[in-house]
UniProtKB/TrEMBL annotation:
It comes from the Bacteria. It comes from Saccharopolyspora kobensis. Residues 5-183 form the Ketoreductase domain. One of its GO terms (molecular function) is oxidoreductase activity, acting on the CH-OH group of donors, NAD or NADP as acceptor. Keywords: NADP, Oxidoreductase. InterPro entries: KR_dom, NAD(P)-bd_dom_sf, Sc_DH/Rdtase_CS, SDR_fam. This is 3-oxoacyl-[acyl-carrier protein] reductase.
Length: 251
């Protein structure tokens, strides 16, 4: 890449987002590491800088329109115009339907759907001006339906629709939009699920691996590698797609 391009990764303080931010820095991007609390982004930023990359920590709640605009403006001013965006920030509020509160529903919609919409809307201006852009949205195998996740599976299926529409609207400006639907990835999110169902994490991952064709659970780097592919210059003809990264053909 001739000039260093600027990528934004949301929810990049830990887990899949942190691994993705590090991978994109290795690929030559200057990376804006966005998460709820700027202080929590420090570890990811230090790791990128220690490896010789460029990164900026930005605190932002992606479900808040004003914070999103301020964060994108700050990234543009301090790192350069962002032309790659990974909408990764996420939360779970799992509950069976009859116990799911309106707050459980709204919180999950707010972070995943409203967050990805607000970030994409704010960043597209820079992509259109540059006549180049890459958007990757984190969906999930839960988009196909998952017990206890009426809110989350709806949001993750919604992100697939957003991805396809962004691909259609922005394609003529050199922008691609794709979604990754991970299966079980070992992160704090799946740790929290293990806790909720009262299992040790090791026991929980072993049970999950037993039903995965490649006989292991995923690691954050498995998803970071897939993001890296979509952001590559040579992936410019791949758009509006959803790739299931789940160690097998089914969720
Ligand atoms: N772990 C899995 O098995 C799995 C599977 C499929 C999809 N995903 C998706 O991948 C993404 C990353 O998951 P993870 O496992 O790394 O989760 P994680 O909980 O480890 O990390 C999520 C990060 O998002 C941040 N975040 C939450 N709300 C935010 C907000 N409003 N604004 C900014 N940042 C916010 C959190 O602070 C956290 O750092 C999520 O979208 C998740 O739904 C995960």
């Amino acid at each position: 890449m001739a000039d260093s391009r600027v990528a934004i990764v949301t929810g990049a303080a830990r887990g899949i987002g942190a691994a993705t931010a590090k991978r994109l820095a290795e690929d030559g991007f200057a990376v804006a590491v966005i998460d709820l609390d700027e202080k929590h982004c420090a570890e990811t930023v230090s790791a990128i800088e220690a490896a010789g990359g460029k990164a900026l920590a930005v605190g932002c709640d992606v479900s808040d329109a004003e914070q999103v605009q301020a964060a994108v403006d700050r990234v543009a001013a301090e790192l350069g115009a962002p032309t790659a965006l990974v909408n990764n920030a996420g939360v779970i509020r799992d509950n069976m339907l009859f116990k799911m509160s309106e707050d459980d529903w709204d919180t999950v919609m707010g972070v995943h759907l409203r967050g990805a919409f607000l970030m994409s809307r704010a960043v597209q201006k820079h992509m259109v001006e540059a006549k180049w852009g890459r958007i990757v949205n984190l969906s999930s195998t839960s988009a196909l339906g998952n017990r206890g996740q009426a809110n989350y599976s709806t949001a993750k299926a919604g992100l697939q629709g957003l991805t396809k529409t962004l691909a259609i609207e922005l394609g003529k400006y050199g922008v691609t939009a794709n979604a990754i639907a991970p299966g079980f990835i070992a992160t704090d999110m799946t740790r929290a699920t293990a806790e909720r169902v009262g299992m040790e994490f090791e026991e929980f991952t072993k049970a999950a691996a037993a039903s995965i064709p490649v006989a292991r659970v995923g690691q954050p780097e498995d998803i970071a590698n897939t993001v890296s592919f979509f952001l590559d210059e040579r992936a410019g003809f791949v758009s509006g797609q959803v790739i299931y990264v789940a160690g097998g053909p089914k969720a």
